[in-house]
Design goal:
Elements (H helix, E strand, L loop, with lengths): L3 H11 L2 H17 L7 H20 L9 H8 L1 H25 L9 H17 L19 H25 L7 H22 L3 H6 L5 H5 L1 H26 L4 H19 L7 H8 L1 H14 L5
Keywords: Membrane, Transmembrane, Transmembrane helix
Protein name: UbiA prenyltransferase family protein
Length: 306
């Protein structure tokens, strides 16, 4: 029998509630870094509920390739709980979304064409990513394109936590959202950081992906080359880009240091990946870097020029 604390721990991570918290934290970070006011609290309720529901539906449709996978076992043992949780979260998410739409209907006039495209682009990509659960779309699923899927996930997450809050903030304040190079760099930083985490996460599924001929980076290039010739160089480039931007815009040293912590931790975790890890390590430590990044960004946003 599992202890109560262990059952709670498994539910928190396997049930994807941690992903919901990470999404909310990253959304708050993005708003603060872009100097937007925080959105209505119901936006964060909607974001949390939507994230948990999306990932739970995705995992429910995963191929049961191994019965010893702890997450597969957990989903099998908690079918009724998952079903009830999904129904509650869908109801909460729909209620929050409808309220926000009604509350900000007068701000719809400030949405231009490209913003409207953005609103529909990210959920469509999210559906396309997991379209392998739909028989007639299975072959076109973005998830089946091993080399591109980490960047698709990063793009979707960046759009969800960067673009949506900005558009909603513009609607709430009856203003126009006009992104510049700074907004683009923040979008790129979020997207690339999460993409690197996804590549690390693919290490867990190496055997399954290899057998299914899914050409992820680790299957195509091997573990060592993936770690030392893809993840670490791209992370270093991302860190260098941030430092260059920060120095050129005279960011305070303390703000620079705080925002470099997630990059350094990502490199440290990458060096540790040559050893076999449990699935909860991936969920708690690797995905936990999203929360660390968000918290560092939030703290850094309160540090201004002296």
């Amino acid at each position: 029998m599992l202890k109560a604390s262990e059952r709670l721990f498994n539910t928190f991570f396997f049930g994807n509630y941690f992903y919901g918290i990470c999404a909310v934290a990253l959304s708050i970070e993005a708003s603060l870094q872009q100097n937007h006011p925080l959105n209505h609290p119901l936006w964060y309720v909607l974001l949390f509920a939507g994230t948990v529901v999306y990932y739970t539906v995705a995992y429910l449709h995963e191929k049961k390739t191994t019965s010893i996978n702890p997450r597969t076992i957990w989903y099998k043992q908690h079918q009724q709980w998952i079903k009830t949780s999904q129904q509650i979260l869908i109801l909460i998410g729909l209620s929050a979304g409808i309220y926000l739409l009604i509350q900000n209907r007068s701000g719809l006039q400030f949405i231009n064409g490209w913003q409207l495209i953005s609103i529909f682009l990210f959920p469509l990509l999210a559906l396309w990513y997991y379209s392998d659960a739909i028989p007639w779309f299975r072959r076109s699923s973005l998830r089946s394109k091993g080399w591109i899927k980490p960047f698709v996930i990063g793009f979707i997450w960046a759009g969800t936590v960067n673009t949506y809050p900005s558009i909603l903030s513009a609607m709430e304040t009856h203003s126009s959202y006009e992104p510049d190079i700074f907004h683009f760099l923040l979008f790129l930083k979020n997207g690339m950081f999460i993409a690197m985490l996804c590549i690390l996460f693919d290490i867990k599924d190496y055997a399954t992906d290899y057998n299914e001929e899914l050409k992820t980076f680790v299957v195509r290039f091997g573990l060592r080359k993936t770690l030392f010739f893809i993840i670490i160089p791209l992370t270093t480039i991302g860190l260098g880009t941030f430092l260059t931007y920060g120095f050129s815009h005279h960011f305070p040293a303390s703000r620079m240091i705080i925002n470099t912590i997630p990059f350094i931790l990502l490199i440290i975790v990458t060096y540790q990946m040559h050893r076999r890890k449990s699935i909860l390590y991936y969920l708690a430590i690797i995905d936990g870097l999203m929360l660390v990044k968000a918290l560092c960004g939030i703290c850094g946003s309160f540090i201004h020029h002296s």
